[in-house]
Every structure is written in C-alpha cells, then in structure tokens.
C-alpha cells in the first residue's frame, strides 16, 4: 500500500486559527487501508501520531508537531438500519459535519438540525460532544468505531463508554490521543420534535411570527443567528469559542447575583452555567485588539487572529482574560480549544 508521507508541512495552513509551526511528517488518509499502513509506518519509525480533522478546534504550537500528523479524509455515509420511526446512519469520520446534517435535513430525519454549520469533521464530533442551540451530539449518538493508534486494533464505543458531558468525553480525558475515530453512528428520528428552547431561536421565531417551523426553516434561522454572531474563519481566523461556559454551584451564583444583578445563567443538572462571553465582556475585553490577536467585536468568547499571530500571542491574552475573570468573579475559565 502506497502512502505519501510529506515532511515539514506548515500546520498554520491546516487550522482555522492559521497558527502552528511545521509538522515533521504529514499524511492525508482516504481509506481504512491507508490508515493501517500509516499507523504501521509511524510505529516502525517510533513516531508519535496526531489526528487532524478540519483544524477548527486547535491551537498548535509555533514549534509545530514533532511526529506524524494524519489528516483524515476517510469519507462515506450509509443507513445501517431503519424502521418506521428511527434510522441509524453510519458516517465515516472524514466527512464534513455539515454535510451529514444537510443529508439528515434532506431526508426528513430529526436530531442534528440545531448543530448545522458547526465547522469540522464527523470524527471530531464525539471528542468534545459538539453542540449548539440546546442540542449536543450525545442526544442522538448511537455507537462509534475507533482504531488504537499504537496497535491498530478496532474498538467499539457505545454511549456509556464515551462518557459524554458538556464539551467533554472520554476522548478528551483518559483516552486522549489514543484512538483514531473511524466512523460514528447516530440514531435519528423520522418524526422528531424540534428543540426551539434556545433564547436566540425563540427570539427570531417570535419576531417572524413562526410557531411551528419546518426542519428547513429552523436550520435557516440557525444559519442566520450563527452568521450574525460568529466570525467566518475564512475572513477572520479563529477557532470558535475559546473557553467553555463555566459551571458554578448555587451558593457561588447567589453571591454573584447580589453583586451583578444582570448576570446570566442556564441551570442544568450540573449546576449554574454562566456564559463565559458575558464574563469576558464585563472585564472589558470585547472588541479589543492586542497586537496580532484580539477579542471578536460581536462575541467576547472568540479570540481572533488578525494576521501573523503566534501561539504565544494567543496564550498571553488567554492568561490575561483568565486572571481578570478570576479577580472579578472568582471563576476559573477552562479552554475549550485544544492547545498543543
Ligand atoms: C467559527 C467556529 C464556530 C464553532 N462553533 C461550534 C459550536 O457551535 N459548537 C461546538 O461544539 N464547536 C464549535 N466549534 C468548534 C469545532 O467546530 C468543533 O470542535 C469541531 O468538532 C472540530 O472539528 P475538526 O474536524 O475541525 O477537529 P480538529 O480541530 O481537527 O480536531 C479537534 C480535536 O479532535 C481530534 N480529532 C479530530 N478528528 C479525529 C478523529 N477522527 N479521531 C480521533 N480524534 C480526532 C483532534 O486530534 C483534536 O484533538 C466552532 C469552531 C469555529 C471555528
């Protein structure tokens, strides 16, 4: 099996943040066979492996990656089982996420519609249990197959094995960097109920007098909301929300509510989730520029690269933000973006 291993490839060209030094080795894989040949090659040379999808949730080091970066382009989508009410779709990990969601909408399948337009690949979706507008993939996740990047052995993970929580999973914790996710299966419904609870979605529906939107109408609304709030990485380099929304306990929330009466929160089973963007905005960062980096003018959760930024520029700003938020609210912000 012929695989084309390249050397000294600029990682900044493969991430939406446009940051990162050289990968010592780099390969694009388009099939399972190429993946196994690549894993063999790396293990023989004792090179470590990093799996790259669309590069939309990454902040690479300016020193690059001292090993082999595998750019995943293994594609394919099939219905593996269906009945009157449900359909199980298997999607290979190199497929673009929005292409999958588009397929579900075209076929009248409910469950993923609120996640339309999240950038990146299907294979990365379980890593941080991607989510948007009140839906997370754990709500419709069924099963996945992953390949151990040391041994090449396959392993299946059901919902419980993945241990999903808010922007988190087993693949970000104890199994971090250990598996290549090959395909993911989702259980979708033929007659689902749309999740319209998210405040931004409700606002637009009310403004337009729409009571029962169709799948298509809802995804169009979500596209408009996203366009109005999030910078397009092709125009302004970024990696989406840099921080997770912190979750605090009721006592801490009570103290903050007295001090900051207009503090926002969403209550879920884990506690009071506070919008990190609001905290950062209160500290005065929104729209500010610090050399080549800055905070997006419409959403304080997003760090942008105005051009030529290095990892150290981003990390300097990150430290500054964390410190200010800690001082003002006694909250520790945690990165959502994977920093390497
Ligand atoms: C403008 C913008 C908006 C965004 N909005 C959202 C949002 O609404 N909700 C949300 O949840 N996220 C959002 N994100 C973050 C990002 O889209 C998701 O995290 C996405 O899943 C990343 O996919 P990717 O293919 O680009 O992964 P990459 O950035 O390439 O990789 C991310 C991590 O996943 C690992 N990985 C990737 N593929 C595999 C695989 N096949 N097997 C094993 N590990 C793998 C990588 O090693 C890395 O650790 C946004 C990002 C941007 C730039």
Fold and architecture overview:
By secondary structure, the chain is an alpha+beta fold. The protein folds into three domains: 6-72, Uridine Diphospho-n-acetylenolpyruvylglucosamine Reductase, domain 2; 77-189, 2-Layer Sandwich (Uridine Diphospho-n-acetylenolpyruvylglucosamine Reductase, domain 3), CATH 3.30.465.10; 237-339, UDP-N-acetylenolpyruvoylglucosamine reductase, C-terminal domain (Uridine Diphospho-n-acetylenolpyruvylglucosamine Reductase, domain 1). The protein is 26% helix and 27% strand. The chain contains eight helices and 20 strands. It has helices at 32-45, 97-106, 159-162, 199-208, 215-229, 250-259, 276-282, 311-329, and strands spanning 6-10, 22-29, 49-52, 58-59, 65-72, 77-82, 86-92, 131-132, 135-136, 141-148, 154-158, 179-189, 237-241, 247-248, 266-268, 271-273, 289-290, 293-295, 302-305, 338-339. It has a five-stranded antiparallel β-sheet. β17 and β18 form a beta hairpin. The structure holds flavin-adenine dinucleotide. Flavin-adenine dinucleotide binds at residues 16, 50-58, 72, 93, 118-121, 123-125, 127-128, 130-132, 179-181, 230, 233, 238-240, 338.
């Amino acid at each position: 099996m012929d695989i084309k291993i390249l050397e000294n490839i600029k990682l900044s060209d493969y991430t939406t943040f446009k940051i990162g030094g050289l990968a010592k080795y780099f390969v694009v894989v388009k099939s399972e066979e190429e993946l196994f040949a690549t894993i063999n090659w790396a293990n023989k040379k004792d090179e470590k492996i990093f799996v790259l999808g669309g590069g939309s949730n990454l902040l690479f080091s300016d020193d690059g990656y001292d090993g082999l970066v595998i750019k995943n382009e293994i594609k394919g989508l099939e219905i593996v089982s269906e009945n009157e009410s449900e359909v199980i779709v298997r999607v290979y990990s190199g497929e673009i996420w929005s292409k999958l969601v588009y397929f579900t909408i075209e076929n009248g399948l409910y469950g993923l519609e609120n996640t339309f337009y999240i950038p990146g690949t299907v294979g990365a979706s379980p890593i941080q249990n991607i989510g948007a507008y009140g839906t997370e993939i754990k709500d419709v996740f069924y099963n996945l197959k992953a390949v151990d990047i040391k041994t090449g052995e396959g392993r299946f993970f059901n919902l419980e094995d993945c241990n999903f929580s808010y922007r988190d999973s087993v693949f970000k914790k104890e199994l971090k960097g250990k598996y290549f996710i090959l395909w993911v299966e989702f259980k979708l419904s033929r007659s689902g109920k749309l999740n319209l609870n998210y405040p931004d979605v409700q606002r637009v529906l009310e403004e337009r007098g729409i009571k029962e939107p169709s799948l298509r109408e809802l995804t169009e609304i979500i596209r408009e909301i996203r366009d109005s709030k999030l910078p397009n990485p092709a125009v302004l380099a970024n990696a989406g929300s840099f921080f997770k929304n912190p979750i605090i306990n009721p006592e801490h929330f009570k103290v903050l509510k007295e001090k900051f009466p207009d503090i926002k929160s969403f209550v879920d089973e884990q506690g009071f989730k506070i919008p990190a963007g609001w905290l950062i905005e209160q500290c005065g960062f929104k729209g500010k520029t610090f050399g080549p980096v800055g905070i997006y003018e419409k959403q304080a959760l997003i760090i942008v690269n105005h051009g030529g930024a290095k990892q150290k520029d981003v990390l300097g700003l990150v430290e500054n933000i964390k410190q200010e938020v800690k001082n003002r609210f006694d909250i520790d912000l945690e990165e959502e973006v994977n920093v390497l």
